[in-house]
């Protein structure tokens, strides 16, 4: 085992992986830090449907040393749990470099926070799927829409 593995990462990251996929009311990434409001929810409650609201979807990706300085793609899709209806789709590219002084083999993190309009057609089960490089790494975040009486 190399010293950098034990001291920096605890375990060597060998492939690009989705570290986290979060839902929030609002979020932004600045200077490598994630700022979020109302984060980590999995349930929406409304008296009437359909409903429209603005949400934030946050994607955190661990990029191993061997995959830095290369272009990668990400895709975020919101859909019904049975995948019969797409609610939103966002795609992009990213490239993570190796900052000066970075120890060899140290992975880098890529974070993106997107503000997305969400239209919820009816109560039920939904999910957001985050995928990197056309499915090489994927994570699902389920959420639920429920009816409440006033």
Describe this structure in words.
By secondary structure, the chain is mainly beta. The protein is built from one helix and ten strands; from the N terminus they run αββββββββββ. A hairpin with a 2-residue loop joins β2 and β3 (33-37). The longest helix has 7 residues, at 3-9. The termini are far apart.
Number of strands: 10
Rg over alpha carbons: 18 Å
Structural class designation:
mainly beta
Span between termini: 60 Å
Largest sheet: 5 strands, mixed
Instruction: Name the beta content range.
Output: over 45%
CATH architecture: Sandwich
Strand order of the largest sheet: 4-10-9-6-7
Give the CATH class: Mainly Beta
| Whole-number tally of structural domains | 1
What's the CATH topology name? Immunoglobulin-like
**Helical stretch count?**
1
Runs with pLDDT <50, length 5+? 1-10
Mean pLDDT: 92
* Shape annotation: elongated
The proportion of residues forming helix, as a percent range, comes to under 10%
Order of helices and strands: HEEEEEEEEEE
Summarize the structure.
This protein is mainly beta and 150 residues long. The protein has one domain (3-22, 29-147): Sandwich (Immunoglobulin-like). The chain has one helix spanning 3-9, and strands at residues 17-24, 26-30, 33-37, 43-46, 51-63, 71-80, 86-95, 108-120, 124-132, 137-147.
List key phrases describing it:
Immunoglobulin-like; mainly beta; elongated; 5% helix; 150 residues; 10 strands; three-stranded antiparallel beta sheet; 1 helix; disordered N terminus
Present the secondary structure layout:
Blueprint (H helix, E strand, L loop, with lengths): L2 H7 L7 E8 L1 E5 L2 E5 L5 E4 L4 E13 L7 E10 L5 E10 L12 E13 L3 E9 L4 E11 L3
